[in-house]
Amino acid sequence: MRVADRDESLRARCALRSLRTGLAALSLAALFALPAAARDESYRVEIKAPRSLKKALETDLDLMRWREAEEPPDAELLTRLASEAETQAREILATRGYVSPRMRCEVFTGEAPMRVRVVVERGPVTRVRVVNVEIRGAIAESSDPLDVQALAEARDGFALANGMIFTQERWTAAKAQALDRIARRRWPAARIVANEAKLDPAQARAELSLTIDSGPPFAFGEV
């Protein structure tokens, strides 16, 4: 065989190898491009929930992540995961103001693959109905206009007002904002001494109370 013939043969083998590698890569890409239901999963999950909540449930439930585990769960573990999913779903809904949802998780272990159905009825959203903000300490006796303004902002301008949707995130942010309004000028020792959010699921209402102690005033500048 001439050198030119050998070169042509080598180029042909290299081209064939590249083609095989490319086809393998395309096959893997196609596999992972398939929707979750089309892959080889140990069980399927059906979530029936309002559209505004379904995405969060699909993303955050441990039940969803276990579908592609290297060691898939057996029927006993799947039943436990479904039970935990109900607790997690309630927590997810609570962060969005739904503290009294109705839900059920059904497990069908006799099917192949096994199947879990999660049904969620969010119920009424919880709203704030009572807000009580109390400011104690020396600032409460101060006649300084800026202190009077800070008191009004912390009490009357509380961020989670009557009628608003209650969520834990909003409650936490509102408390931090009220404390900052007291502490940011000359009351850096201010602190929250009591706080409570009383939730009534039956009435879908929240009653909030917050107490801040200003501590002593601090003066800055030359002594």
Your description of this structure?
This protein is an alpha/beta fold. It has three domains: 1-33; 36-121, Roll (Ubiquitin-like (UB roll)), CATH 3.10.20; 127-213, Ubiquitin-like (UB roll) (Roll), CATH 3.10.20.310. It is built from six helices and six strands, in the order αβαααβββααββ. The strands form two sheets. The chain has a three-stranded mixed beta sheet with strand order 1-3-2, with helices on one face. Strands 4-6-5 form a three-stranded mixed beta sheet. A hairpin with a 5-residue loop joins strand 2 (102-108) and strand 3. The longest helix is centred in the N-terminal third of the chain and has 31 residues, at 3-33.
- Largest beta sheet: what is the strand line-up? 1-3-2
Architecture (CATH level 2) name of the largest domain: Roll
Structural class estimated from helices and strands: alpha/beta
Distance between the termini: 101 Å
Tally of helical segments:
6
What name is given to the CATH topology of the largest domain?
Answer: Ubiquitin-like (UB roll)
What number is the mean pLDDT? 83
Element order: H for helix, E for strand: HEHHHEEEHHEE
Strand content: 15-25%
Which CATH C-level class of the largest domain is it?
Answer: Alpha Beta
Number of domains: 3
Radius of gyration: 30 Å
**β-strand number:** 6
Task: State the helicity in percent bands.
Answer: 40-55%
CATH superfamily of the largest domain: membrane protein fhac
Q: Major sheet: size, sense and barrel closure?
A: 3 strands, mixed
Shape label: elongated
Identify low-pLDDT runs. 1-16, 19-39
